[in-house]
UniProtKB/TrEMBL annotation:
<keyword id="KW-1133">Transmembrane helix</keyword>
<feature type="domain" description="ABC transmembrane type-1">
    <location>
        <begin position="76"/>
        <end position="291"/>
    </location>
</feature>
<dbReference type="InterPro" id="IPR035906">
    <property type="entry name" value="MetI-like_sf"/>
</dbReference>
<keyword id="KW-0812">Transmembrane</keyword>
<dbReference type="Pfam" id="PF00528">
    <property type="entry name" value="BPD_transp_1"/>
</dbReference>
<keyword id="KW-0472">Membrane</keyword>
<comment type="similarity">
    <text>Belongs to the binding-protein-dependent transport system permease family.</text>
</comment>
<feature type="transmembrane region" description="Helical">
    <location>
        <begin position="112"/>
        <end position="136"/>
    </location>
</feature>
<keyword id="KW-0813">Transport</keyword>
<feature type="transmembrane region" description="Helical">
    <location>
        <begin position="80"/>
        <end position="100"/>
    </location>
</feature>
<protein>
    <submittedName>
        <fullName>Protein LplB</fullName>
    </submittedName>
</protein>
<feature type="transmembrane region" description="Helical">
    <location>
        <begin position="16"/>
        <end position="43"/>
    </location>
</feature>
<feature type="transmembrane region" description="Helical">
    <location>
        <begin position="211"/>
        <end position="228"/>
    </location>
</feature>
<dbReference type="InterPro" id="IPR000515">
    <property type="entry name" value="MetI-like"/>
</dbReference>
Length: 304
């Protein structure tokens, strides 16, 4: 039997699985792989009227401009800090929340809790930003009015640069932490119940069962998601930052995502903004490769 015959035999045998996967495959081909051809724009002085083939090549000129831009240190620092705080404060929350939900024995109450923590994921970031403004505005904000009635002072949550990163992290936790528990709850459902039964026989407490059975059982999932998160270290999310940014807090709010919008869309610098995006992608690729290698070496868990 030839290799081609073997492939066609497997395709025929599992044809319905491949048909089911076809929409996802087409999505990635059309919206992920084909657009990668646009990377060439980063090395051109792209002109929409000349197209890809006739626009003049400038090599690494746009990358030189990026690295020598006076705003580059600020952009790099702000992006790294927000991503670092997300990893430090947001990343553990879905894990902890999943562990807590997993301990709930009343199935009706458990489903109610899961539904409640999932709902914020479906709320638009525009709505969340509006709620934030309503609550924290220095003039009419509910929280500031309460603070003023208690202390006689108000806090400039929305314009004071010191509060910006904290607001971003709190918004992210409130919106996405519940949704992030789905993967961990799925991993927890695969833990062998006999392990808990043996632990109970040995006199283990609930905390000891969690520490010695539950957490080690989902550690591979945690590591894989952590590696994937490192690959998006320079992706802080455009919409949230853009909605919360203003001229007063720009020194801590401007990140690569909003910078690409500013120079690429509002100023029409397509080649330069593509170079910035390619720089982010290269950094993410390097981080994934390095973290995957270290994880494979020390924990025997890896993406590939």
């Amino acid at each position: 039997m030839t290799a081609t015959t073997s492939i066609w035999k497997r395709l025929k045998k599992d044809k319905w699985l491949y048909i089911l996967a076809l929409p996802g495959i087409l999505y990635f081909i059309i919206f992920r792989y084909i657009p990668m051809f646009g990377i060439v724009v980063a090395f051109q002085d792209f002109n929409p009227f000349l197209g890809f083939w006739k626009s003049p090549w400038v090599g690494f000129e746009h990358f030189k401009t990026l690295f020598t831009d006076p705003d580059f240190p600020m952009l790099f620092r702000n992006t790294l800090l927000i991503s670092f705080y997300n990893i430090l404060f947001y990343f553990p929350v879905p894990i902890i929340l999943a562990l807590l939900i997993n301990e709930v024995r009343n199935q009706v109450y458990k489903r109610i809790v899961q539904t409640c923590v999932y709902v914020p994921h479906f709320v638009s970031m525009v709505v969340i930003a509006s709620i934030t403004y309503v609550l924290l505005s220095s003039e009419t904000g509910v929280i500031n009015n309460i603070l003023y009635s208690l202390t006689g002072k108000k806090i400039e949550f929305l314009t004071d640069p010191r509060w910006f990163r904290a607001l971003i992290i709190i918004q992210s936790i409130w919106k996405e932490a519940g949704w992030g528990t789905i993967i961990f709850l799925a991993a927890l459902s695969n833990v062998d119940p006999t392990l808990y039964e043996a632990a109970i026989v040995d006199g283990a407490t609930r905390w000891q069962q969690t520490w010695h059975i539950t957490i080690p059982s989902i550690m591979s999932t945690v590591i894989i998601l952590f590696i994937l998160r490192l690959g998006h270290l320079l992706d802080t999310g455009f919409e949230q930052i853009f909605l919360m940014k203003n001229p007063i807090n720009r020194s801590v709010a401007e990140v690569f995502d909003t910078y690409v919008y500013q120079v690429g869309v509002t100023q029409g610098a397509y080649s330069y903004s593509t170079a910035v995006g390619l720089f982010k992608s290269v950094v993410g690729l390097i981080l994934i490769q390095v973290s995957n290698y270290l994880s494979k070496k020390f924990t025997e868990t890896s993406l590939f």
